[in-house]
Structures are given as C-alpha cells and as structure tokens.
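Comment thread on ticket #2218

A.B. wrote:
> Attaching the input chain for the structure job we discussed in standup.
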Amino acid sequence: MSGKPRWACSMCGMYSGRKYSVRRHIMNLHGGLSNIVSFVDYLAGRRQATYYFPNPIPNYMMKQQVQSPTTATTRPGEILKDELFRTTLRKRLGLR
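C.D. wrote:
> Ran it. Output below, let me know if you need it in another format.
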C-alpha cells in the first residue's frame, strides 16, 4: 500500500489511504457491521480501549476460480463424451 493511511475499519483495524477500499472491506468481511473512522481517530481509540487491537491472524479470503458450466469442458475427449451422453439420452427419451 502506498501513501499514508487515512481511513480504518473500527472492527479489525484494516487501514487504507482510500475510503472506498475500507468501505468495500467492511461490506465483504464484516457484512457492513463496522464503521469507517479516520486513522488518527482509530489510533486514539486504541489507546483509550475504544477499538480493539487488530487480529494477528490474516483475515483475507482467497479468490476461488469458478468455472462456468459452458466453458468447463473444453477438451475434445470431454466434448465427445458429453455429446454421446446427450445423444443416448435423446434416443431413450424419444426426442430423436
């Protein structure tokens, strides 16, 4: 992160120079149940025990690669197997 931290999450202490980044963090990780405070206010609140110290365990979520059903099978063998299955199913159901 470049620049000075200007905003912080009051629940976990995540900070950023961009208010939108902290707002997005609060929506994604805390379900919108936290407040955005200025970083200086957050540090003062920690000294007065208003805000908790940040959790030393990382609280980020790994992005998972999700394949859409239409692009999941791109290998020729998989395409052939799918087409044979569909053809057999159509014949048994009397659609062809």
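A.B. wrote:
> Thanks. Noting for the ticket: The helical segments are 19-30, 39-47, 76-93.
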